Inverse folding.
């Protein structure tokens, strides 16, 4: 599964198709916090499978940005 916004852009752009989770033997044993991620579950359909899970961090130089950024928009 692509991460976060990339997944949603692919789904909303109709670039990917839903998957049949019944064909994945271990699907029901995966951590529900990951399996039910909003980044690949849209409209009751599943568009991806979790591969890794970890934080997305935004670090910044406080001398350059005295006010902390409140979104990823400063990067893009």
């Amino acid at each position: 599964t692509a991460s976060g916004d990339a997944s949603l852009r692919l789904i909303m752009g109709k670039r990917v198709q839903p998957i049949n989770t019944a064909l994945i033997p271990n699907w029901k044993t995966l951590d529900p916090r990951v399996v039910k991620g909003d980044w690949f579950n849209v409209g009751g359909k599943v568009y991806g499978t979790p591969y890794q899970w970890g934080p997305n961090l935004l670090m910044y130089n406080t001398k350059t940005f005295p006010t902390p950024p409140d979104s990823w928009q400063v990067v893009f």
Summary: The radius of gyration is 16 Å.
